[in-house]
Specification:
alpha/beta; eight-stranded mixed beta sheet
């Protein structure tokens, strides 16, 4: 891992520097698309340092998956209730069968996955019979927005896509967009493709 990647991978960069440079992001609005979660079993794929804990209300269960042990160690430093379960692993179909999630969180995830892995994950969620809603949020290319283009090129995720490319992955997986919007960061420098999905 090069110096640039090591810096961007540091949890404090994502928790402090990035959000302040961009004036905050649209994650709060996208989390509200999940609706009331008090009776839900949530699965957070790519949970990172636990940003969801700052956005969610009550829930029946929360299961966070991430392959970055540094981020998970940061997550585990939070004061967590007993219904929060963390896994240093990629989610599998067997995990979905065991957990039986009702809502899924994929915030900042898809742009880290190549097309085949992203399609595999979305298709797996589409086949999960208990899943009712899922949210996604990823940086996206916008024409005539050079600062945003530069940020997308510099992103640690190497698979930032245009809106049509994200939409093609979702459609091929068999998930139906209830909402699909491009939302800006607080200072308007960065743009994100955000969706609320349900099983078709």
């Amino acid at each position: 891992m090069g110096l640039y990647s090591r810096i961007l991978a540091a949890p404090w960069v994502y928790e402090w520097l990035r959000l302040r440079m961009l004036g905050g992001g649209p994650a709060g609005e996208v989390f509200r698309w999940l609706g009331d979660t008090r009776e839900d079993v949530l699965i957070d794929i790519g949970c990172g340092t636990g940003m969801a804990m700052d956005r969610l209300g009550n829930f029946a269960e929360y299961h966070g998956f991430d392959t970055d042990p540094r981020a998970l160690r940061r997550f585990q430093q939070r004061v967590l209730p007993n219904n929060v379960h963390l896994y240093n692993a990629a989610v599998t179909a067997a995990d979905l069968d065991r957990i039986q999630p009702t809502k899924a969180i994929l915030i900042g995830l898809l742009h880290h996955l190549p097309d085949d892995k992203a399609a595999e994950l979305l298709s797996m969620l589409a086949r999960c019979p208990t899943l009712r809603r899922a949210i996604t949020l990823d940086p996206t290319f916008i024409e005539a927005k050079p600062v945003n283009t530069l940020l997308c090129r510099l992103d640690r995720g190497r698979h930032v896509r245009s809106r049509p490319q994200y939409e093609a992955l979702i459609q091929a997986a068999g998930l139906e967009p209830v909402k699909a919007e491009v939302l800006a960061s607080g200072n308007g420098a960065a743009f994100y493709f955000c969706t609320l999905l349900k099983n078709s």
